[in-house]
Amino acid sequence: MALLRADFYSNYLKRNVMLTAVIPVDKMDGDKRAKGRRGPYRTVYLLHGLFGRDVDWIDKTHVVETAEARDIALIMPSGADGLYLNKPEINEWHGKFISEELIEVTRHLFPLSRKREDTALAGISIGAYTAVINGLLRPDRFGSIIALSGTFMRDRILEAVDSHSPRKRRYYERFFGDLDTVIGSEKDYEALAERFRDNPDLQKPRFYIACGESDNLCQSNRDFAGLLRANGFDVTYWEPEIGGHEWPFWNAWIDCALDWFAPGEMKPTTAGGDYTALTSLREPDKPIPMTGENPDTL
């Protein structure tokens, strides 16, 4: 794998943006360079969590090894607070940066596939929320969405709108803009999912969602998976008994997600052993609800 760092000016963000790209152009087979296809590659755009960096994925997971085994290219932008949302009221277009500018720039720089079925948007925590929002806004671009321990905050925002605490409201407005406009908007994942029910001609992205039972976001992830299924989406949902809101969990489950996106033989990873041993399906007596309200889980 070739690991490259790029620094380019974003017209949408009006600043320079750092990204890390992993491209399988120099894949080795033993002591020799493998002779195989050289693109266009299936691509996963990986978003970090709150106040993270593009290199978090390199430093804290073995995702590069997994991607190499499947000839997948990885694009990891650095997003400061981790939220790539459009805020038209203040002329900020972070969402369009992800779904338009980043896609076009990286496809110009690297031999990436332009097919939606070969393109996935993935994230952890608040980055998973961002991936869901932008993936649902641009299903023509992203055929797959991967959300690990997603911070699905719609009900929490509603609470802040009705709260008498100015501090709480200001905190959320920092990320979401005017809270009175969030519900039913392009920042509302429930509203975005439901529009596919009303527009059957829209192409639906498929979803991979995973959240550990010990994560306090587990119930909201379970509810969101049920909401998606109620609206006709293809959803793969995992809720293992182990794993909290932490990198060891994401390290294991990004492997599983990439295997779902591009199935293939998996060699033992640097984590040791077969990664599939870390996964377990939900018990039959714990069905995922089709509908339900998210609790106060943030």
Automatic annotation (TrEMBL):
Signal peptide interval: none
GO MF term (any one): acyltransferase activity, transferring groups other than amino-acyl groups
Organism name: [Collinsella] massiliensis
Protein name as it appears in the record: Acetylesterase
Pfam entry (one): Esterase
InterPro entries on file: AB_hydrolase_fold, Esterase-like, Mycobacterial_A85_antigen
Region (Disordered): 273-298
